[in-house]
């Protein structure tokens, strides 16, 4: 539930996705930026990005972050 709330904080419209540029903000809210590592945020964003669209969808985000 904490992860969903953090995602929704950035996805205020409830569209089910965030911009890749907002990933760092979500990681800060979840207090896992340090665990991921500042240098790995871009790598993670690229991995989570949906088909080069510049967005990260909830399902893919959850599948990845839940393993952290």
Overview in brief:
The protein is mainly alpha-helical and 68 residues long. It has five helices and two strands, in the order αβαααβα. Helices cover 53% and strands 9% of the residues.
Describe this structure in words.
This protein is mostly helical. 53% of the residues lie in helices and 9% in strands. The protein is built from five helices and two strands; from the N terminus they run H-E-H-H-H-E-H. It has helices at 2-10, 23-29, 33-36, 41-48, 58-65, and strands spanning 17-19, 55-57. A two-stranded antiparallel sheet has the order 1-2. Helix 1 (2-10) packs across helix 2 (23-29). The model has no long low-confidence stretch (mean pLDDT 96).
The rough form would be described as globular
What sequence of helices (H) and strands (E) makes up the elements?
HEHHHEH
Which residue ranges are poorly predicted, with pLDDT under 50 across at least 5 consecutive positions?
Answer: none
Average pLDDT works out at: 96
User: Would you tell me the structural class of the helices and strands?
Assistant: mainly alpha
Radius of gyration: 11 Å
Q: Which band does the percent of strand residues land in?
A: 5-15%
Count of individual beta strands: 2
Number of helices: 5
What does the main sheet amount to? Answer: 2 strands, antiparallel
Strand order of the largest sheet: 1-2
Give the N-terminus to C-terminus distance in angstroms: 15 Å
Percent range of helical residues: 40-55%
